[in-house]
Amino acid sequence: MSYSMLGILAFILVIGSRPSAVSCIFVANGCQDLLESFGEVTANFTRCTIRNARPITVCLACVDTFIEVLTKYQQILALHGEDGTPCKLQLINVDKLEVVEGSYRFVINQWNRADCNNCFQNQSGSITPEANYYTIGIREKSDQLEACISNNANGTDPSNKTSGNPKVCFNCASDYKALNDYYIVNKSLVNGFCMDITDMINTTRYRWSQEFRCCSEREQPETIFLLVTMTFCIIPLVFYLFVRLCTVKHLLPISTPKRWEHYISSSSSTANLVQS
Amino acid sequence: MNVTDEERSRILSRAAFQDPDDEIATETVRKKKRMPIIRETVEPPLLESNDDNAVVEVGSLNVLNSNFESLDYDICENTLFLDEERKKGYKFIVKKSVARWMIFLLIGVLTALIGVSIDVSISELSKIKFAKLQNSLNVCMTDNCLCIPLFIFLAWNVIPVLIGSTLVTCIEPIAGGSGIPQVKCYLNGIKMPRIVRIKTLIVKIIGVITSVVGGLACGKEGPMIHSGAVVAAGISQGKSTTLRKDLGVFNYFREDHEKRDFVSGGAAAGVAAAFGAPVGGVLFSLEEGASFWNQSLTWRIFFASMVSTFTLNLILSAYHGHPGQLSFSGLLNFGKFESLNYDLFELAIFVMMGGIGGILGAVFNLFNYKLTVFRIRYVNTKVKKIMEAVIAAMVSTAVPMLMIYFINECKPLETDPTENPVQMFCGDGQYNTVAALWLQVPERSVRALLHDPPAALSFLSLGLFIMVYFLMAVWTFGLSVSGGLFIPSLLIGAAWGRFFSQILQFIFPGAGWIDPGKYALIGAAAQLGGIVRMTISLTIILIEATGDITFGLPLMITLITAKWTGDFFSEGIYDYHIQLSGVPLLAWEPPPLSGNIYANQVMSYPVVTFSVVETVGNIIDNLSNLTHNGFPVIDSQPLDEVAQSNKPTSSPKSCGHLCGLILRDQLIVLLLNKAYKYPSGMVDQRETINMFRNEYPRYPRIEQVDVAEEDRHLKIDLRPYMNPSPYVVQHVASLPRVFRLFRALGLRHLIIVDDMFGVVGMVTRKDLARYRVWRHHGRIGLEELKISANFKS
């Protein structure tokens, strides 16, 4: 971004926050104002993320505040104060506490841990508040599924966890499968989705499997399989029994190597014979 | 008439110390002096023994196979050898030295290459197998066709095992099993037939790949040691009898002394490649062949081990995509531990775990011993052996599938470290943990057990896995396939170590010092120590594989406890297999309290001798009728009759004065080269020591020697070819003395002489090895083994 654009942006923002400020290309009232507005936008972002913590909708809800934080920080880095010194030298890297950098890093960290960049379109290397194609697609499918579920879950008691809801399972299966497949296929294409989408998918899957019990049809006893495996387990016993009963045992002949003891015994026995 | 043992020992001890001129000799001795001399020509009557026609069932622990010979470690310094030395000079010594270093370098590199090829083959094949299985399982879960993945799994298990087992059984049976007992025996100084042939190597490599891919409970580390030994023996000789090629190099290394040194280096390089433990490799060779060791050999072996580890590391890192990162120092990789800290009180827990490992190891060994005896007695044809291996593969398919089917333990997908997670009956986004444990190569399972977060597996699944895998490992070792024992032991140990840590977690909830990975590692060490009972080398191998020397103290304490506990109940597993094969292994030390057994009891008597100038006919007859391999050479001076008659008849009769020792192989080579054509006393110009070296190591048999009838009266002068100064020991020497001399020098024959220094008897390995010490339940005793010539095992 060129300095002129920054200046104009700063001008507009300053006008917006301090109606009585003296209008000037450079920041009015020094870099302290910048610092205050930076504090405000950071607070806004933090408040937004905490509000959207469960279920996770951090990325989609707080993208505007995030962009504000980014711009403010860029201003701090780029603009000059009244006396001509850059705000960067006054605010950044001046002390050991590093509050400004720390807060900025916190915001960036939060954003990256949730992989929020994956949900938005990129324009010339920077993020825009518009969700990208895949995010829009998956949210559509999710909304469709939600509509189907709410249609079919009317008659049942949602607090009854054990019985499940076969109506939902049957009618909404295609919507669920569409959503699931879309997620699986595109997950690897686009480096993954942001945490909002992942959390949404997890919750949907949990509800599908555990709440509505739609997966219990997988657990059907397979008799052929069981019979075959049990047979495999019995075969070794049969084999060993057969081998035990039908094999002739070999015997090892023991050889007596010639030792001197054998000769003495014979000579002493002859000695005894002669003596007696 | 039988003589009582008491009387016999009295006579023997008196013979040892009898001085014919002793004034206080007893009446009995004086009476004996008047007995007629038993002439040598009359065949002395043998005692009618009720041991004649004695038979023993195969599969006994107390029988030695008399067909095993010692290696000729002692150098035969006959005139040919001295001629060569004189001619070649110091330049020859330098050339030999340089050649030795080059060969050790090659040994290291080639062993590493073999290790890499085994690892890569197993990796690639397993990847394909488990990917196919995963797809099939995921599809068939919903379509109710579970028999299809079962049959895919079955095909992938049975076909490789069938191939491997057929190769081992039909082509080279010595390549079966782990290979470590055979290498141990070779380093002990026993000539193990066919152990270092190229055919054995090829069968072993293919065998181990097929066994591991076929899902049997075996590992690839033991076969690496054997492969290293074969590579070393092959390269150092410069010729291959299997391939019938003689490169004509390294002629001076074609003798048992040099070959054994190279094989020690090869075994060390194999250990280094298998575990990433160069020092462990050196110590393994040291532990097994310690008696005949020298420092320069240690240095060269260490060089070979380091080269082996480094080469393996380089190639495997490149294969895994990070060339130059050098993070794969061995085939067995425990992975990187973040921290292996332990508190002092945990040492007591480690000792307890060592005890448990020892007991479990003793149980393992006893079960396997009984099973091996059963196999020796009843599973004795080729077809039965192959069928047994195939059935084991089938059960290795059925049991995991049953466990995966019945145990429905699910964990969310993001936490899984496996390559092919299988969903089975779990919800979407989850995977079955039991499938994750079974459907991967055993090394990865060990790594998973060492590094998974706590509570990754429940008590039920872990407990069941331990029991099932233990039984499968007991069953698999001893099948007619190539495969080692290290990985299954480590896996069983890691599993019960983790189980133990989960119990501890249950008893002390919230304790920060309970790290499941650490306890899994200790459990693995304890189990391995309890089964194989190796001492120094195992400790160092595990320390190097872990990569953390500070964890050395717990490992050593655990291994020591496991060994002592296990030894209280049973032998080590390799010892059982060696004893069942009837191999005459000599222990590290002579049996204790055996000082009252004298050389004249140990030796074989009478001994067949040749005179210095012997007729061809006599030589051929003796070689054909007897199975002896060493013959003392005596001079033809008449024995001093008076001195002979003054000897009490209760001492052994000597044949003559000793001049040297000649071997059967040397005699056969002489006969083949028609040495009798040349007048005695002159060594022909064209005869050199290479005449013998060319036939090494597989000398022809006496049946292949063809001598015309008219040549039978010709004489050969044995003096240029015999060993002029063989080791001798007097007949009154005690058993420990004879044992120490024999073992420390690596002898094959030890001649026993009487008071006049005439030859009376010969001691060979079988004569010494039959005195074996047993240690059971804290007691020690000495037993004497029987010897059999027609061993079928």
Automatic annotation (TrEMBL), chain A:
A GO cellular component annotation here is: cytosol
Record-linked InterPro entries? Osteopetrosis-assoc_TM_1 (IPR019172)
Q: Which Pfam families match?
A: OSTMP1
What domain of life is recorded for the organism? Answer: Eukaryota
Provide the leader sequence positions.
1-24
UniProtKB keywords: Membrane, Signal, Transmembrane, Transmembrane helix
The regions listed as transmembrane in this protein's record are 224-243
Q: What is this protein called?
A: Osteopetrosis-associated transmembrane protein 1
Q: Which organism is it from?
A: Bemisia tabaci (Sweetpotato whitefly)
Top-level taxonomy:
Eukaryota, Metazoa, Ecdysozoa, Arthropoda, Hexapoda
UniProtKB/TrEMBL annotation, chain B:
Where is this protein localized, as stated in its record?
Membrane
UniProt keyword list: CBS domain, Chloride, Ion transport, Membrane, Repeat, Transmembrane, Transmembrane helix, Transport
Q: Which residues form the CBS domain?
A: 722-780
GO-annotated cellular components:
lysosomal membrane
What GO molecular function annotation could you give as one example from this UniProt entry?
Answer: chloride channel activity
Keyword Heme on this protein? no
State the membrane topology. Answer: Multi-pass membrane protein
* CDD domains found in the cross-reference section: CBS_pair_voltage-gated_CLC_euk_bac
Q: Which domain of life is it from?
A: Eukaryota
Tell me which stretches of the chain form a coiled coil: none
What residue intervals traverse the membrane?
98-118, 151-175, 196-217, 262-285, 297-319, 347-368, 389-407, 455-478, 485-508, 520-543
What is the first-listed, main subcellular location in coarse terms?
Answer: membrane
Membership in a protein family? Belongs to the chloride channel (TC 2.A.49) family.
Under which name does UniProt file this protein?
A: Chloride channel protein
- Per the UniProt record, the source organism is Bemisia tabaci (Sweetpotato whitefly)
